[in-house]
Amino acid sequence: MNSCAELKQHLTDEIDARRETVVGIGEAIMDAPELGFKEFRTADLVKETFTEFGLSFDDQLAITGVKAVLRGGKPGPTVALMGELDALQVPDHPRACAETGAAHACGHNAQIAGMLGAALGLTQSGVAEQLAGTIVFFAVPAEEYVEIGYRLGLVKEGRTSFLTGKQELIRLGLFDDVDMAVMIHSTSPDVHDGRMGLAPSSNGFLAKNIRFLGKASHAGGFPERGVNALNAAQLALSAINAQRETFRDEDCVRVHPIITKGGDLVNIVPAEVCLETYVRGKTPAAILDAAAKVDRALRGAAVAMGCRVEIETVPGNLPLRNDPELAELFRNNAGAILGSDGYRDYPHAGGSTDAGDLSQIMPVLHPMMTGASGSHHQIDWHISDADAGYLAPAKTLATMAVDLLHGDAANAQRVMANHEVAMTKEEYLDCQRAVFQTETFDGDQ
After folding, report:
1. Model confidence over 120-135: pLDDT tens digits?
2. I want to staple 6 with a disulfide (CB 3.0 to 4.6 A). Which of 2, 165, 389, 406 is the partner?
3. Are 137 and 59 in contact (CB under 8 A)?
């Protein structure tokens, strides 16, 4: 058997030899962005690539997901290497889709290129024969939490039960055969210091669609006959702001509502005003506590104005828990590629990802590697350094898989033995299903 170091070198050489392929995948996806649960062309590219590498796969998983399996020479644990298929809406991005406004302004194109680059190295090098376990290559849909109305429509049609890809894949049992999962997110020097790094955790959230219903009347002639839903919404926003000092600093709570409809005509007292908000926090308990305060503010505003409020609450993502032993393996392998002095420990992150959902039930790693320029979700975002943005993640994923499964898979066994899950799969599903709630409160009663 070759040493772990020899296998890693063989892998990275193989990926370097197919540099044009890996970079081409990333750039092709960049120029064909698709929104979540609609990533059909991107999924087709993944399937074509798996076929080229001799990997059989299952597709149409949670609508667009694709899953391939590479078995090692001996049985052992299963490691999933993941990449996300979807873009988000940044219509002014120079490489946005003109029809949908979708753009890869978060680096998911690099995730898929990195995952497929790892698959290339592990299949074409023959390294898998010397590993004890299984590697799953998983292209997962719909991580970005956008088009909430469209996704709720999918739920009502029975096409999905949750609003993001990993949530639905968990429900369908498509992670039941996986023991741990790793993915790498792109970042840039405009966002993070160093060349790669890791936050121990990030916020989770739930989402609310809110509708205040008042009574229309002529705004100039008979305003006293109306019930102003816009005033109710403004009172609600003020009441939510007044709650901010009640949020504990250590809970990292973020509430950021927007008004999506402010009325119909300027000379009519607004009878219907709509808001959306996320309620974020570091723990599920903190999220639920803040959400209860938001609901109280909404009801109070309805009482003040004598109108009705409808509150639809849907599950977002649970907080991310990065596994510390997987983190150390990432630090070593990424450091060997980009230089160990480029590693940084990041603080708790205020954003959210559905990798957090998966991290509640198994060891998960979701680190950052540079290679981009600009800021996430903005018009200047793009992969500007192909070697750091596309090749380095591919090499890191592949070499981590070797580290985990080499020999008798001692590293993977240790990760599994030392990891404490936060929830069972069933507890997770119950937790997220319980968030779905719709309340109608009449403030004029």
Report:
1. 999 999 999 999 999 9
2. 2
3. no
DSSP per position, 333-350: HHHHHH-GGGEEEPPPBS
pTM of the model: 0.95
Phi-psi region of 332 (alpha: psi -120 to 50; beta: other; left: phi over 0): alpha
C-alpha distance from residue 13 to each of 9, 16, 116, 289, 363 (Å)? 6, 5, 15, 51, 29
Q: What is the pLDDT of residues 114-167, one digit of tens each?
A: 999 999 999 999 999 999 999 999 999 999 999 998 999 999 999 999 999 999
Contact of 32 with 438, CB cutoff 8 Å = no
Phi-psi bin for 349: left (phi > 0), alpha (psi -120 to 50), beta?
A: beta
Nearest to 404 by CA among 49, 127, 186: 127
Cα atoms found within 13 Å of the Cα of residue 307, Cβ hemisphere only: 29
Q: Tokens 């024969």, residue?
A: 129
**Cα dihedral sign for 12, 16, 17, 22?**
positive
DSSP state, 388?
A: I
The candidate with the shortest Cα–Cα distance to 414, out of 426, 425, 423, 406, is: 406
Q: At a CB cut-off of 8 Å and minimum separation 6, what does 300 contact?
A: 235, 236, 239
> Measured between alpha carbons, how far is residue 138 from residues 84, 200, 212 in Å?
8, 23, 42
Q: Is 27 helix (H, G, I), strand (E, B) or coil?
A: helix
- Contact by Cβ (8 Å): 151, 425: no
Cβ 12 vs Cβ 399: under 8 Å: yes
Nearest residue to 63 (alpha-carbon basis) of 82, 40, 95: 40
Phi-psi region of 107 (alpha: psi -120 to 50; beta: other; left: phi over 0): left
How far apart are alpha carbons 220 and 183 in whole angstroms?
58
Residue 39, number of CB atoms within 10 A of its CB: 31
d(CA 233, CA 437): 20
